[in-house]
Design a protein that fits this description.
The protein is an alpha/beta fold. Helix content is 58%, strand content 11%. The protein has 17 helices and twelve strands. Strands 2-4-5-7-6 form a five-stranded mixed β-sheet. Strands 9-8-10-11-12 form a five-stranded parallel β-sheet, sandwiched between helices.
């Protein structure tokens, strides 16, 4: 039978194995020292007591130690289960040595040789004390050796009789009791230490296994989220586009109400999917912040554009105040925090409105989101950051969302190290305050699909472009986009590959009908990257052609890559209003639009 792995062997066998190994480290030294010591003491005793018995005893003792040194050697390769047999062999050797030592008093304790007796007592007591230190891993061997030698000495002293011998016997008995007590205690301590060591090693091994299992689960979760983020968004994106086209076509007809309700359900489903994936990505560690200088005003203007219409629909006031401040944060995650807070504030405000303001406080910046809503009772203020918990919504009214917005805010607060405070008065409104580091050295402006900005060469017009080229390998998406953009008066050329896009751009340029916008899906067939393909088409055919990416992958790495390229991007599933807004913002104005704007 081979050696079991340490983690597979019983704990008692592992402890015994270490006790054997510890003793055998000094085994040879012990018995070689005994051989030398026996010869020296035998010579001294023979000088005081020249008898044949002394010579015989010394020779026998020497031979016992010599034979003991010749026993087969224990090695680490010995199976764990053989430990008990080796412990018995070692115990037998030690007990035999103790019995041999115990013969000495009957030879050397003689009437009228008190000095010789005193020397013997000192030697035997010292030898027993040394033995307690050397053989403490084996309790039976320790007890057997000490009792065999010391009881024999006590019995020999009592046998001689007399006051001095009785006193020495009593002294030896006390010494024996102390040795046994100390030896047993040290033996137990050593066993407990070894047991604790192996238990800790086993615990560490289990912890390592759990850590590895957790890491594997996290990787699996990350891969699942990556697949889910794209595979779930694709059909929902197509549904959203077809539904928006249907809604536009049925506008003003009785059937339009059903189309409108359909789009409300689709948009709610899209928001729910995005929210759930956001939580999963953060918990899986997929989202990692990139802290840099971030100007607040573009973010605040973007939030005003997004939530202004919603506030107006609910007859609420939304006031977002510019600050001119820059903070040290993540340009993608900070707007997510603020949008969740503003969205939550608008949902729970029925009159009055919401104010968003940022102001510097020393080396920090406070961003306050204050509403005049229903407030939060004291007993629910800790729970509002839990998933799926909503104040005053026991019936799970979906118009109030899923109840995970503040949960995302809490997660992002920890991820970005932006502490958040909450103060609320029931029926008097709520204040959420985010504390961020002030950035005294602002960086350059960032391009974001959600922000509306202009350069010296590009004019932002409200009208839609006349001709748009779409590159998407999904036939359903091409058909849906063609129908939807057609309802907006846009002529869309939809192609499924780079080669088809090249032919379309060549034909358009040859006819003098250049495209006003190029839209690319981020993930194309055969692992092609839409950003790379789009930039390549622009470089070859039209360097001034605006480019918009539509992506089902919203991981932070993808966002940072696109941001570094300076390309606008919108995530699937795309809402029709958001798509129309971004197209109108970034498209190159057509000749008709330019003529209309410059009479």
């Amino acid at each position: 039978m081979g050696t079991l792995p340490p983690s597979s062997a019983p704990l008692s066998e592992r402890v015994l194995r270490e006790q054997i190994a510890a003793f055998l480290l000094i085994f040879n030294t012990i018995f070689r020292s005994r051989m030398v010591f026996v010869l020296v003491i035998g010579g001294i005793m023979y000088a005081e007591l020249p008898r044949l018995s002394v010579i015989v005893y010394t020779a026998a003792h020497f031979l016992i130690s010599l034979v003991t040194l010749q026993i087969p050697r224990w090695m680490r390769a010995v199976p764990y289960a053989d430990g008990a047999r080796w412990a018995r062999v070692i115990t037998a050797c030690i007990v035999v040595a103790g019995v041999a030592d115990g013969v000495a008093p009957w030879i050397f304790v003689q009437p009228g040789h008190l000095p010789l007796t005193a020397v013997l007592i000192v030697v035997m007591m010292a030898n027993c004390a040394r033995a307690v230190q050397s053989i403490r891993p084996f309790k039976v061997a320790l007890v057997g050796y000490v009792l065999a030698s010391m009881l024999s000495l006590i019995a020999a002293l009592i046998h001689e009789g007399g006051t001095y011998y009785y006193f020495l016997a009593a002294f030896a008995a006390v010494h024996l009791a102390m040795l046994l007590r100390a030896g047993m205690h040290e033996t137990d301590q050593l066993a407990e230490a070894l047991t604790l060591r192996f238990e800790n090693e086993a615990l560490a091994a289990r912890l390592q296994e759990q850590v590895q299992e957790t890491e594997r689960a996290s990787l699996e979760k990350t891969r699942f989220l990556t697949a889910a983020s794209h595979d779930l968004r694709q059909p929902l994106h197509a549904i959203s586009l077809f539904g928006a086209a249907l809604e536009n076509q049925l506008d003003g007809r009785a059937e339009g109400a059903n189309a409108h309700r359909l789009m409300q359900a689709v948009n709610a489903l899209g928001h729910s999917l995005e929210t759930m994936l956001d939580i999963s990505r953060i918990d899986a560690g997929v989202v990692q912040p990139t802290l840099q200088s971030v100007p607040l005003d573009p973010i605040l203007r973007s939030l005003d554009d997004v939530f202004g219409a919603l506030a107006e629909q609910r007859s609420l006031q939304l006031r977002i105040r510019a600050s001119g401040l820059h903070v040290h944060s993540d340009p993608q995650l900070l707007p997510r925090m603020l949008s969740n807070l503003i969205d939550n504030a608008l949902k729970y405000t029925t009159r009055g409105g919401v104010i968003v303001a940022a102001r510097a406080r020393g080396h920090r910046v406070w961003i306050d989101v204050r509403d005049t809503g229903v407030g939060i009772p004291p007993d629910q203020r800790e729970r509002i950051f839990d998933e799926f918990y909503q104040v005053g919504n026991p019936g799970r009214d979906r118009s109030l969302g899923l109840g995970v917005g503040l949960s995302i805010v809490r997660r992002l607060s920890k991820l970005l190290a932006h502490p958040i405070e909450m103060h609320s008065i029931p029926d008097g409104g709520t204040l959420f305050r985010i504390s961020l580091p002030l950035d005294a050295k602002p960086a350059g402006k960032l391009l974001d699909a959600a922000s509306t900005h202009s350069t010296g060469n590009t004019a932002i017009l409200k009208g839609m472009p006349r001709r748009v080229l779409l590159l998407d390998d999904e036939a359903d998406i091409r058909r849906a986009m063609t129908v939807l953009l057609g309802t907006w008066g846009v002529h869309l050329t939809a192609v499924g590959s780079q080669s088809e896009a090249e032919k379309a751009m060549q034909s358009a340029n040859a006819a003098g009908e250049c495209f006003d916008l190029l839209i690319c899906d981020y993930r194309l067939s055969e692992e092609a990257n839409g950003a790379v393909v789009g930039l390549r088409l622009r470089e070859r055919f039209d360097k001034e052609l605006p480019l918009l990416l539509i992506s089902g992958e919203t991981g932070p790495d993808r966002l940072k890559q696109v941001q570094a390229l300076g390309i606008a991007m919108i995530a699937k599933p795309v809402e029709a209003t958001a798509l129309r807004h971004i197209i109108s913002v970034i498209s190159r104005p057509s000749a008709a639009q330019l003529a209309a704007s410059h009479p």
